[in-house]
User: Fold this.
Amino acid sequence: MTLKDKHIVLGITGGIAAYKSVMLLRLLMKADAEVQVIMTPAAKEFVTPVTFSSLSGKPVISEFFTANSGEWHSHVDLGLWADLMVVAPATASTIGKMANGIADNMLVTTYLSAKEDVMIAPAMDLDMWRHPSTQRNLTQLQKDGVLVISPGEGSLASGLEGKGRMAEPQEILDEIERYFSSKENLKGIKVIVTAGPTYENIDPVRFIGNYSSGKMGFELAGEFARRGAEVTLLTGPVTLETPAGKIKRINVSSAEDMYIAARSIFPDMDIAVFAAAVADYTPEIKANHKIKREHEEEITIRLKRNPDIAASLGASKKNQITAGFALETDNELENAQKKLKTKNFDFVILNSLRDPEAGFMKDTNKVTIVSKSGEIEAFEAKSKREVARDIVDILEKAIKEKSETL
Ligand code: C5P
Assistant:
């Protein structure tokens, strides 16, 4: 695969495996990528920057300022420029700094400014690799969405044998190519994701709402966009920024508004994921004026049923693949099966309220995906970004199978 027009920031840290990154850079250049190398000060003890600048055709960046000209290197611009940042080798120290936001060099500062994905190829001695601190930091980075290329086993620079050897340059290049080709996987596919809570007005200043943060739906929209899909993100009131990529965001407030918008978009879609926490009921009468406190000890707000967006669109579906969430407290699998029927879903993503790592406001989720054809796949607790990847993997497979049978 060609990497033409791909901008890659190659971060090099101070490990003996830095010599292998010379080969990685050569492979990237051969694949036609545009590469900007950033070295940590320690990396320069292992390989000279001249090697990397001659191969990449660009001066290596290492300091915040160029000593003689005083030119400032903007990590923000670099973070925006990069289509991918690859840190190879990633030492235990850099992994620790990245996991904790310790931005005391150009590499970690650029990492914090990177808008697109970041991949790391750890390299260290086996005891450092096994250390709980390293493992904790790696888990944190994975939660933050960093892609980790596992080190291999073999003889290490220390003379010891074991895990910690940086993946070979060709393997890293393969990962990079796989990453970019997956960006094309859903090209031309139109996706709608509903997200967030709905607000059901009682009067102009009060509403009935729920604690949905919208995070899961936003991560899904981001993941679909990363794979090249055209995404419509239909969201209730949330405080989240729209993820990067081809995403058309439509803000709504009530279930009724969400329903009206979804109904007009749905017929054109290939995939719909209903991740919104839609209020089941809404006040029958919405007062035009703020309801005043009078002498009554009690007041009554009568509620009426809201439209079930997923069920209504599910009933009208033609070729679309649809998936919805189920947040259950008991009889989870049984209820998931029911939802597959009543909402005509192809997949139900089950998250249990009993799970401390699942649900509203959290950054993590633990899901089980139940398919119409009877398959059940249970996943570990993961960051919502990783959960989004698992869900989109399954939907991508389903849409490919569908297009093959059509
Ligand atoms: O039936 P229940 O509300 O548990 O189903 C949840 C699923 O249905 C979610 O995917 C949610 O987004 C969707 N839903 C909807 N419209 C409603 C209620 C739920 O789209 N009014």
